[in-house]
Structures are given as structure tokens and as C-alpha cells.
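stage 2 :: seqdesign
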């Protein structure tokens, strides 16, 4: 069975392509590097879809500003990079529990509609994002986390293989996706760029997955 067939051969099946997992691209912006102590400040997620010839595309995007949890550490150096003012009076931030609940609701819907069993996080240096996601889930006591607890697709690794680039900006440029430096380091922009990069790489490898020679059907 190839990537563009279901069990009855009628439609593409993203569930077949990834063994029952739905790739969902996630990016977080944070107040530091320690998931246990540092604030989660933004989260964004992009779901993916497969077209009638088995190519992967971006589907829906959600993103939220997040209130720092009580006692959260926030490193000034991190705020200099992401440009976030977590205490700005006009910042439309949600508590962690509400932000995660909204993201997970959309992810569960996408998993259900795709015929998959669970989501798997896609990210650039993905274990960083998964670590902050899992820490926030533990803090908030959310029970229905749709993501696999430790498996990921890491676009830094994939881009290193496909393009010889591991930095997101350089990988996106190598993939002819362009790059807006003014928009970078917002969770939504980085997530959509990472999603486009992941789709580009998966689609380039599609002929190999389907049993053809490299370069066929690209």
C-alpha cells in the first residue's frame, strides 16, 4: 500500500504514511531553557493534511499567548531573543490550562478526522518543545494529552539530511521557503515555517516511500 491509498484504495491516508500517528507541528516561546522552572509564553500548533496524490500540506493553525505560571522563572536574555513582554497590559494571554486545552482540542479533532490514533510532535529541535509541553501538562493536571509522550519528528535532523542545514532560517531558505526575520521567533511564524519545511522534506522522500527511484513523482 502506498501513501496515496487507504485500505480500500480510494483516498490518501496520512495514517498509513506515519503508522497511525498524525504529525502535528508545535513551537513554543519560553522564558528560558529549563522546562521545569521557566515560563511557557507562547504556543502554536499546525495540523497537516494529505492530498489525493499523497503529498503533505499545512492544514489548520492555532496559536496563543500564555500567562507565566506562578513562580515561573523568566530570563531577560530569552525575552531579548523572542521579543515578548510577558507583562504587557495589552498582551492577550491565557492561563496555561486554557491555552493547552484549546490546542489539544484542535489536535484531537485532527487526529480523529485523519483516522489516526495519536499525534506525534514535529518541531525544530523537537525535544525542547515537547519538554515544555509535557512540563505544562504536568503542572496543569491535564489528563487527555493527544501527543506521544516521547517520540518526535525533528526537522533540525531531517533538514540536516535533506539540505545540509540545521538552523531553521537556513533550512527554510535552502528549501526555497523564504524567511521573514521580523516575524521570526513568534510561535505562530516559526511553527508555520517548520511545518512547511517538514512537508517539503516528506514530499521529496515520497517516491522512495512509494517504492520508486529517488526523484520520481516529486
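stage 2 :: out
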Amino acid at each position: 500500500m502506498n501513501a496515496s491509498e487507504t485500505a480500500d484504495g480510494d483516498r490518501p491516508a496520512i495514517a498509513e504514511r506515519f503508522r497511525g500517528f498524525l504529525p502535528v507541528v508545535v513551537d513554543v516561546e519560553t522564558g528560558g531553557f529549563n522546562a521545569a522552572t521557566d515560563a511557557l509564553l507562547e504556543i502554536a500548533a499546525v495540523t497537516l493534511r494529505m492530498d489525493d496524490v499523497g503529498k503533505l500540506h499545512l492544514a489548520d493553525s492555532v496559536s496563543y499567548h500564555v500567562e507565566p505560571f506562578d513562580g515561573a522563572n523568566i530570563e531577560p536574555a530569552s525575552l531579548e531573543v523572542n521579543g515578548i513582554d510577558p507583562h504587557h497590559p495589552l498582551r492577550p494571554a491565557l492561563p496555561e490550562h486554557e491555552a493547552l486545552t484549546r490546542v489539544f482540542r484542535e489536535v484531537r479533532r485532527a487526529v480523529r478526522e485523519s483516522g489516526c490514533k495519536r499525534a506525534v510532535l514535529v518541531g525544530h529541535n523537537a525535544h525542547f518543545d515537547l519538554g515544555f509541553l509535557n512540563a505544562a501538562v504536568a503542572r496543569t493536571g491535564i489528563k487527555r494529552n493527544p501527543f506521544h509522550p516521547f517520540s518526535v519528528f525533528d526537522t533540525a535532523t531531517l533538514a540536516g539530511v535533506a539540505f545540509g542545514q540545521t538552523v531553521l532560517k537556513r533550512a527554510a531558505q535552502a528549501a526555497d521557503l523564504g524567511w521573514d526575520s521580523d516575524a521570526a521567533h513568534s510561535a505562530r511564524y516559526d511553527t508555520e515555517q517548520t511545518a512547511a519545511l517538514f512537508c517539503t522534506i516528506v514530499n521529496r522522500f515520497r517516491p522512495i516511500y512509494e517504492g520508486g527511484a529517488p526523484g520520481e513523482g516529486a
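stage 3 :: structure notes
- The two ends are 18 Å apart (CA to CA).
- Residues 35 and 135 are 6 Å apart (CA to CA).
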